[in-house]
C-alpha cells in the first residue's frame, strides 16, 4: 500500500493510469455495460460505483484542456427521457477535481460502444444507476 492512494485504486488501475498518454481515453462503466466484450484492457472495480471511482481516478488523471469535451456520456435511447440524475453527480465531481466546469458530451448508445472499443481501458464497476457510463480523455500534467 502507498500513502494517499484511495483504497479502490487497485494496483492494476494505477498501472493503467500511469501508462495512459495524452489523448488516451478511459471508460468508467456501470454494471450493465458490456465491458468485457468491448475492452482492449479491462480493470474490475466490483463493489464500487462510477462516481466513487471517478473521484478517486481524478486525483491522478488530468482531463484534456485541448478538446471541447474531455468527458462524454451515453445518452438515453429514448430521446424524451429526462437527463439521468447521475450526470449531475459526474459534473459536480469533475468540477471539484478540475476546478473548472466541464460540459458532458452526450453520445448515442452505439457510437458510445464504438468509442469505448477504442479506449485505452474500461473500468467495470457494479453501479446500478442507469446511464452511468463515462468516457474521460486524459490531458497533460503541468508542473
By CATH, the topology is RbsD-like fold
Poorly predicted regions: none
Distance between the termini: 25 Å
> How many DSSP helices?
5
Question: What is the CA-based Rg, rounded?
Answer: 14 Å
Secondary-structure element series: HEHEHEHEHEE
Structural class: alpha/beta
Arithmetic mean of pLDDT? 97
Coarse shape? globular
Q: Give the count of structural domains.
A: 1
Strand element count: 6
Largest sheet: 6 strands, mixed
> CATH superfamily membership, which one?
RbsD-like domain
Q: Report the sheet-strand fraction.
A: 15-25%
Strand order of the largest sheet: 2-5-1-6-3-4
State the share of residues found in helices, binned by percent.
25-40%
Word description of this protein:
The protein is of the alpha/beta class and 143 residues long. The chain has one domain: RbsD-like domain (RbsD-like fold), CATH 3.40.1650. The chain contains five helices and six strands; from the N terminus they run H-E-H-E-H-E-H-E-H-E-E. A six-stranded mixed sheet has the order 2-5-1-6-3-4. Helix 4 links the parallel strand 3 and strand 4. The longest helix has 13 residues. The radius of gyration is 14 Å and the shape is globular.
What's the gist of this structure?
The protein is built from five helices and six strands. By secondary structure, the chain is an alpha/beta fold.
Feature tags:
single chain, 143 residues, alpha/beta, 6 strands
Provide the fold topology.
Layout: H1 11-19, E1 25-29, H2 35-38, E2 42-45, H3 50-57, E3 71-74, H4 86-98, E4 105-107, H5 109-118, E5 121-125, E6 134-137
Parallel strand pairs: 1-5, 2-5, 3-4
Antiparallel strand pairs: 1-6, 3-6
Amino acid at each position: 500500500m502507498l500513502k494517499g492512494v484511495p483504497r479502490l485504486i487497485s494496483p492494476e488501475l494505477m498501472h493503467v493510469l500511469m501508462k495512459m498518454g495524452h489523448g488516451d481515453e478511459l471508460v468508467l462503466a456501470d454494471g450493465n455495460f458490456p465491458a468485457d466484450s468491448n475492452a482492449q484492457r479491462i480493470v474490475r472495480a466490483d463493489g464500487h460505483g462510477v462516481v466513487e471511482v471517478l473521484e478517486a481516478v481524478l486525483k491522478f488523471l488530468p482531463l484534456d484542456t485541448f478538446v471541447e469535451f474531455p468527458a462524454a456520456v451515453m445518452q438515453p435511447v429514448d430521446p424524451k427521457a429526462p437527463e439521468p440524475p447521475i450526470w449531475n453527480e459526474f459534473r459536480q465531481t469533475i468540477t471539484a477535481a478540475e476546478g473548472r466546469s466541464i460540459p458532458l458530451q452526450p453520445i448515442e448508445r452505439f457510437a458510445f460502444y464504438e468509442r469505448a472499443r477504442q479506449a485505452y481501458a474500461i473500468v467495470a464497476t457494479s453501479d446500478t444507476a442507469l446511464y452511468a457510463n463515462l468516457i474521460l480523455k486524459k490531458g497533460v500534467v503541468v508542473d
